[in-house]
Design goal:
Blueprint lengths: L1 E8 L4 H14 L3 E8 L7 E9 L14 E4 L19 E5 L14 E5 L1 H7 L11 H12 L4 H11 L4 H14 L1 E3 L16
Parallel strand pairs: 1-4, 4-5, 5-6
Antiparallel strand pairs: 1-3, 2-3, 6-7
Length: 199
C-alpha cells in the first residue's frame, strides 16, 4: 500500500487535487481511498488531504500518519508546520518551488522534487498572480516522479472533474509532468507496491 499526504492552503485546490489523483489511479487499475482533513476553514489556512492506493482492496479507515510520499503546494508551510512529519527516509517530497535552493536543508534525507507550479499556473491563466491555481500542475509533477498514473489518464479525469478551463488545466498538468526536477537522497526506501505491474 502507498499512502500520500497533501499539504496546502485553503483556496489552492488541495482537496480537489487528491480527488483527481485518486480517480486517476483508480482508472489506472488501483484500489484507492481519498479523504480531506480541515482545520480552520478559511482561505490561506493550512489544509491536508490524504490518498491511499493499493493493488488489493483497502480495508483500513484511519488517518494517514506515516505517508510514503508528501505533496506540498506552498513551500512557506515549512515555516509553520512540519509537512514531513511521519515520512520515512527515502520517501518522495514534492514541493511547489522554483528551485531546490528555496527548500529547508533538512530535506536531504528524502527524495525531493520541485516544480514551479505557480509559474505554470500563471502561464495557463489559472488563478491570479497572488493566488495561482496550482493543483493540476502538482498532480502532473507527482505522476512523473512516481511513474503512475499515465498523464493521458490524468487529463481525462481533469476534463471530467473540472468545469472551467479544462484545456488550460490539462496543459498545466502536462507541463509540470515534463518539467519537474528530482534530487535523490542517500537513503532509499523501496516502494510498498509495484507501480510498474499496473502498466
Amino acid at each position: 500500500m502507498q499512502e500520500i499526504r497533501f499539504h496546502g492552503r485553503g483556496g489552492q485546490g488541495t482537496v480537489v487535487a487528491s480527488i483527481i489523483l485518486a480517480k486517476s489511479f483508480f482508472e489506472a487499475g488501483f484500489f484507492v481511498q481519498a479523504f480531506p482533513a480541515f482545520g480552520v476553514e478559511r482561505r490561506g489556512a493550512p489544509v491536508e488531504a490524504y490518498l491511499r492506493l493499493d493493488n488489493k482492496k483497502i480495508r483500513v479507515r484511519h488517518n494517514i500518519y506515516n505517508p510514503n510520499h508528501i505533496i506540498v503546494q506552498d513551500r512557506r508551510l515549512f515555516n509553520v508546520i512540519d509537512p514531513t512529519l511521519g515520512l520515512a527516509p527515502g520517501g518522495w517530497v514534492l514541493v511547489n518551488s522554483p528551485s531546490f535552493d528555496e527548500l529547508p536543508p533538512d530535506l536531504s534525507s528524502f527524495r525531493t522534487a520541485v516544480v514551479d507550479a505557480a509559474k505554470i499556473a500563471l502561464k495557463h491563466n489559472l488563478g491570479t498572480r497572488t493566488h495561482p491555481m496550482i493543483n493540476t500542475a502538482m498532480i502532473g509533477a507527482f505522476a512523473a516522479i512516481i511513474g503512475d498514473p499515465p498523464i493521458d489518464v490524468i487529463e481525462r479525469i481533469i476534463r471530467e472533474e473540472i468545469v472551467s478551463k479544462q484545456k488550460e488545466n490539462c496543459l498545466a498538468a502536462k507541463d509540470a509532468y515534463h518539467s519537474v526536477q528530482t534530487r535523490e537522497s542517500s537513503i532509499r526506501t523501496p516502494p510498498n507496491i509495484d507501480m510498474a505491474s499496473q502498466q
